[in-house]
């Protein structure tokens, strides 16, 4: 195995707040790597530092040994860092296929129309959205939107795909689909780094887990090991008297949607 992505000493301050504080990790080629931790732990900020949406106060990001730290988000995308967002924002009046085509063209400047179309169609196939290709993006369900978001990111031809809570708001059955989707992306040879609160999803997907708390790395390791770590239990999973965020139904359905989920599962 070889290291594909390295974050070294990443820090980001917002005024007096150290949102990310000296975070380092390495991701191996072909790995599915999870970042977990309580709300406000600095997970999204870390991903933003990696993708170039934010400029770090300190630290560096390298992809295949190439230092990306001074590159813009677009340049990092061209270098092979793909990104799907916590809040899905497709172009609503374009079809699914057109949205994915934009990803293909954005990811590789100067790509021919024919190559972009081939790449877009492949991304649609991998994400199971070929049947939605001619639909307007604004007509999609949440799960379909998430598939589109991943298809669009995949069409940029990433070496590493960064996913921020793509399972949020999904019903349990949909979350299981999403797990299969992320696996098929990895089977395409794409390394995946994802942020997730739904613990069964983390358990099922992650080869390794980085746990953050208060902007720092609390620990890192296999799911089975980090979830036994007393510090992780106290900071995130909850003590015996707290409800741990490990229930798919509770975690995958937003408050108020549980009735829907129950109906759906019945
Ligand atoms: N642009 C910003 N300006 C000021 N503070 C910010 C900004 N972005 C994030 N923060 C703060 O930085 C901290 C880390 O936020 P971040 O969004 O990275 O957390 P997170 O781990 O992704 O949380 P969640 O699980 O809720 O998505 C929080 O205290 C947040 O309020
Ligand atoms: Mg976040």
Output the keywords.
disordered C terminus; Rossmann fold; binds magnesium ion; 2 domains; binds adenosine-5'-triphosphate; alpha/beta; 39% helix; 266 residues
SSE layout and pairings?
Layout (H helix, E strand, L loop, with lengths): L2 E12 L2 E12 L3 E5 L6 H9 L6 E6 L2 E2 L5 H7 L1 E4 L11 H12 L5 H14 L15 H14 L4 E5 L7 H16 L3 E5 L3 H7 L2 E6 L2 E6 L1 H4 L3 H8 L10 H5 L5 H8 L1
Parallel strand pairs: 3-8, 3-9, 6-7, 7-8
Antiparallel strand pairs: 1-2, 1-4, 4-5, 9-10
Helix pairs in contact: 3-4, 3-5, 4-5
The protein binds adenosine-5'-triphosphate and magnesium ion.
Q: Percent of residues in beta strands?
A: 15-25%
> What is the CATH architecture term of the largest domain?
3-Layer(aba) Sandwich
Name of the level-1 CATH class of the largest domain: Alpha Beta
Strand order of the largest sheet: 6-7-8-3-9-10
Record field, number of beta strands: 10
**Shape category:** globular
- Counting DSSP H or I runs of 4 or more residues, the number of helices is 11
- Topology pattern, helix = H, strand = E: EEEHEEHEHHHEHEHEEHHHH
Mean pLDDT: 88
Q: Please give the share of residues in helix.
A: 25-40%
Described by strand count, sense and barrel closure, the largest sheet is: 6 strands, mixed
Number of domains: 2
Bound molecules: adenosine-5'-triphosphate, magnesium ion
Distance between the termini: 44 Å
Class from helix and strand fractions? alpha/beta
Radius of gyration: 18 Å
At the fold tier of CATH, the topology name of the largest domain is Rossmann fold
Low-confidence stretches: 246-266
CATH superfamily of the largest domain: P-loop containing nucleotide triphosphate hydrolases
């Amino acid at each position: 195995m070889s290291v594909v992505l390295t974050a070294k000493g990443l820090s980001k301050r917002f005024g007096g707040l150290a949102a990310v504080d000296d975070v380092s990790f390495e991701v191996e080629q072909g790995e599915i790597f999870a970042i977990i931790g309580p709300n406000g732990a600095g997970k999204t900020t870390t991903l933003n530092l990696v993708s170039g949406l934010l400029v770090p106060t300190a630290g560096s990001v390298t992809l295949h040994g190439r230092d990306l730290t001074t590159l813009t988000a677009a340049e990092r995308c061209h270098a092979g860092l793909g990104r799907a967002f916590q809040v899905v924002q497709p172009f609503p009046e374009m079809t699914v296929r057109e949205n994915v085509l934009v990803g293909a063209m954005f990811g590789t400047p100067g790509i021919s129309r024919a190559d972009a179309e081939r790449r877009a169609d492949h991304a649609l196939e991998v994400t199971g959205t070929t049947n939605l290709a001619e639909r307007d993006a604004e007509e999609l369900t949440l799960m379909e939107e998430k598939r589109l978001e991943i298809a669009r990111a995949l069409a940029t031809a990433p070496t590493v795909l960064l996913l921020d809570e793509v399972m949020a708001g999904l019903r349990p059955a949909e979350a299981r689909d999403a797990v299969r989707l992320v696996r098929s992306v990895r089977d395409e040879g794409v390394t995946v780094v994802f942020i997730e609160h739904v613990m069964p999803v983390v358990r099922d997907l992650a080869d390794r887990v980085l746990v953050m708390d208060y902007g720092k790395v609390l620990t890192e390791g296999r799911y089975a090991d980090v979830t036994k770590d007393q510090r992780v239990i106290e900071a995130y999973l909850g003590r015996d008297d707290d409800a741990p965020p490990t229930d798919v139904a509770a975690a995958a359905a937003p408050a108020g949607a549980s009735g829907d989920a129950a109906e759906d599962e019945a």
